[in-house]
Amino acid sequence: MPIIDFHTHAFPDEIAGKAMAKLQEECIVKACLNGTLGALLKSMDQNGITKSVLCNIATKPEQFNPILKWSKKVRSDRIIPLPSIHPFDKEIKEHLKIIKEEGFIGIKMHPFYQNFSIDDENAFYIYESLIENDLLIVMHCGYDISFPEWDIASPQRIIRVINKFPELKFVTTHLGAWKQWDEVEKLIIGKKIYMEISFSFGWLPDEKIREFILKHPSDFILFGTDSPWADQGKEIENLKKLAFPEQLLNKILYINAETLLKIK
Could you tell me the pTM of the whole model? Predict the structure, then answer.
């Protein structure tokens, strides 16, 4: 059975050590991998993962080109990179057009590392350009473990964005919004909003995760791990322990991702 991990991270070998050391200082969770692409591929091999979506984050506008260059270098049948644009980039429209022309399916953004609120009107230009180029966006949603609990990516803000841009292919992370699950239950569960499930096991009771998934449209749930911050194999085990019907499990593990990523 294919498995697609819709949320992973890795860095070029020459900066992986430094990048992971800095991130590890900020994060109370110990990384499971060393942040290199080789380690990710080895983990995929060990756990039967067919493809991984590689999420990049531009923490400065000038990182667009290096991230794009690396994304072009590492993409393969198994690695599907998402380049990134910074919200303060003065060439967003041009850069999103380049991302489309280079054959990428979308981008990743992270409001905490990029210092913006997802429903800020200054971000609307980004969403409009994504729609124009038929690109998806994987957005970090909810709080972030390495930052104070700032309200910049909450379910209320997600709903404002989706209501204003109903054509936008917007993927929420961490079971809708990390550690804002009361609001997720009220505002997101049951709506046709893409939701990947990383970093929910161990933070929310299994029975609640199961309830959320069963109440959500089955075509809008994606498997993700946030590797290297979680063990891909354990996350697969955690999902399978919830004992979903085979059809639903297959949708979560690969069918929905194949549709969204336009994999034939």
Answer: 0.97
